[in-house]
Amino acid sequence: MFEMEFFRPLSTGFLSLASDRLIDYLHQTENGLPVTTLLPPEGLRRAYTEGGIPLGLEDDQNAEAPEKLLEAMRLTLQYSTCTSHPLFFNQLYGGPEPAGIAGEWLTVVANTNCHTFEVAPVFTLVETEVLAKLARVIGGPYSDAHDGLFVPGGSIANIYGMHLARNRADPEVKRRGAVGGPHLVAFTSEQAHYSYLKAVALTGLGSDNLIGVACDDSGAMCPAALQEAIMAVKGEGKTPFFVGATAGTTVTGAFDPLEPLAEVCREHGLWLHVDAAWGGAALLSRKLRHHMAGCEQADSLCWNPHKLLGMPLQCSVFLTRHAAILKQTNASGAAYLFQPDKLNAEYDLGDKTIQCGRRPDAFKLWLAWKAYGDAGLERWVDRSAELAEAFARKIEGSKGAFQLVMQEAPFNVCFWWVPPQLRPFRPDQASAADKALLSKVAPAIKEAMQHKGDAMIGFQPLRDAPNFFRIVFAGAKLLKDCCLDDLLHQMDDYGQHLFPAQCNLDAGEI
Amino acid sequence: MFEMEFFRPLSTGFLSLASDRLIDYLHQTENGLPVTTLLPPEGLRRAYTEGGIPLGLEDDQNAEAPEKLLEAMRLTLQYSTCTSHPLFFNQLYGGPEPAGIAGEWLTVVANTNCHTFEVAPVFTLVETEVLAKLARVIGGPYSDAHDGLFVPGGSIANIYGMHLARNRADPEVKRRGAVGGPHLVAFTSEQAHYSYLKAVALTGLGSDNLIGVACDDSGAMCPAALQEAIMAVKGEGKTPFFVGATAGTTVTGAFDPLEPLAEVCREHGLWLHVDAAWGGAALLSRKLRHHMAGCEQADSLCWNPHKLLGMPLQCSVFLTRHAAILKQTNASGAAYLFQPDKLNAEYDLGDKTIQCGRRPDAFKLWLAWKAYGDAGLERWVDRSAELAEAFARKIEGSKGAFQLVMQEAPFNVCFWWVPPQLRPFRPDQASAADKALLSKVAPAIKEAMQHKGDAMIGFQPLRDAPNFFRIVFAGAKLLKDCCLDDLLHQMDDYGQHLFPAQCNLDAGEI
């Protein structure tokens, strides 16, 4: 009477069909699928309805046949943005890598949590091993002692950094709470990721107590400005406790100068956390790791192998050189889960986290690391920087049609397509009208490329610079030299068409 | 010169091989794989070394051949705890469901984030649709207005509830921080999940300001005790702001009485959050949803379809009936990501979260809901309760060998195997020595079952009750009636062998 067949309209045979189609899709991404099939929400809804499996869940939803589910999967792949497309440059992540996919698919099937050794013996050891390897890659004090976790994204990792720092600065906070404690103040650069802002909101520190420190022209935090900001806060009788540095800023890709920042932090007894979500990959390259110099002096750092290294989302590492502090800060000792009288309880990782269940995100990176080896990963990282460099040289060789916003960083190139009448564009001398015109260019070209489905590149304004494109070479996408030339030709064509030489602001409003 | 073939030691052909093996593994889980192959860490390391692919990442790690990677995958499945095994009852999750697996595998291949519509058009709409369906299932004010997110686990969802509640109680906290603000106090039951403790640590509220409210014998929070606790806190001049209720406690499966709790919260203007991570599934059953009565009056709630409903980890919903508050609390308006001048920007979900990247966890649930329909999911949930009921009756029919710790909850059965000389076991009359003996029984029987690999059931102590087993019927595992009889026979055999009638405390120390 307890047969559960009833509950399983789908067998594992369905999984065979589904996985075949997923693998076919990955093949196609290398052979001319559009990067996006641009439909507004109502168009998407129509496509699913016409496919016989509406997007909505009805009030009395029927069970659909397996063929309908396969059709839904097909439609979902067709209308999802194709991050594996060679010309998807819109985000700091890209095509997922096959070993990473296989590793992730395995964790889905194994379906367990890295909270206790007894339900995740292999994943627990794999996580420990990957963290140990990364600690050795960082070197310095991390080779002697470290602790860490794979966490759900870089923002959460930055929250961990701030959370641990507060607990070191105010050991009573875990029990007493912030009310009645010291008035703590955190520092980060003006160009740091917005997750620091989320972190001060969530932890109850407050955005008034997050000081944005000035950056140089490249977008890197100025140590002298940090020193000044700390002195000013001390002068107000408040307690500086945390500096959130960035190694590879989101937009310009700048690396904060970690050695001088670490020196300032040591002088004032502040916790230095490095958000290396994007730039941490430089550690794997002998040519590029100088950008991370000083990171071994940081109290904690994060790195997202799901960004440059093409691990399927999510794959985020948090590491600290303070071996006991994760447990001190987060342990709650839940009796139902971390029973000391069960086997191998001393290997349980779960009491160190802010979560309970936690995915075994280390496994895919472990498998990929075994697939590539140190040399393969190094080559990958170097390649990303070489592509950025080559792309920047193409921009410089474009006779003014394209223009670098600033000198390129190792992994980021920021550039404009400049309408003919604004060439060469000089931000410091440009009129408001010129800036208003230029600010319309990137959205318009991007939209045209999205409609055509041939490429996606992100744009954004920054300080006084009107909207500009940012290109990065993330993920495991196939990419040929001619692709980049073709891309620039296309963008130039769109630019010329949308912003002809005589266009004015009105004409730019398309 | 930009060919990227070099970077891909693995082709999608590898994925075909890998997925075939994963599907084979799922087949085997239904046909006699051990639930666990118990090896200590050093034994696991030896197994991988003997398999030619050591667990460690070397200082100069070589690239391994694809066959080695497949061998690593095989070993990982072999030595991972098999949560799909019919007799894996160790956690509130179990075997993953095929539609859920297919949906999750697709999201791995699509590899994108639910932060902006432009990179996740389908996933954004799917998330919106699933949340809307759930809001209608909850009913009441949720039918009119709601907002929500899929988040990385129930603990994070509980953190969201507390975070939003604080921002409602103290709208200045986002800017000013907690220092200088009201002295806020939260309430939850003594038997609530430990994530509430993590939440007060992370948000800076402090464990002193989390009051554990007394429960009745079933483990449900007493509204009168809550009322008293609130009055006491007010008497101290502090500000109660949040009640964290539980629908389906982790150990006993108790449902807090939500209607009277909601009334107390209304009276005092407190935010009521319901942690329905486990018990929320009752909403899908006409027979069982009365356990959730009053949940529609909650300000927020969470539910984990990766628990009872067998979605692959992670699949956690956070919902609130306050449509604007997620954005008010979490928005940072990052210019580089949420550009208002890109297409369809108004559909972006990302600014509402504490993350930046966020996995499209709604998709697998959407696909499974289409596969099962409302009726199929209802049958699943009912079945889980029927199995619990049937199991409890078997315990009662065991002539004293097994004994219920308390009356069973809809989805949880807590029980002892009682050594002959302690039968019937009466906790209130038992000596310390008797309790000490009984506390050794569950760990010993569990260990024996782990060594043999035939079943895994969790145990824990609670209040005065010595270690007892908790069984739950989670996930999409195949399960036959005879399995449960066999299980009880096995446990009884182990018990009789390990704790013969004449055993005393010393003999029990195995």
Automatic annotation (TrEMBL), chains A, B:
Its cofactor is pyridoxal 5'-phosphate. Pfam families: Pyridoxal_deC (PF00282). SUPFAM superfamilies: PLP-dependent transferases. PROSITE patterns: DDC_GAD_HDC_YDC. Signal peptide: none annotated. It comes from the Eukaryota. The keyword Plastid does not apply. The keyword Lyase applies. Keywords: Decarboxylase, Lyase, Pyridoxal phosphate. InterPro entries: PyrdxlP-dep_de-COase (IPR002129), PyrdxlP-dep_Trfase (IPR015424), PyrdxlP-dep_Trfase_major (IPR015421), Pyridoxal-P_BS (IPR021115). Belongs to the group II decarboxylase family. This is G11699 protein. It comes from Coccomyxa viridis.
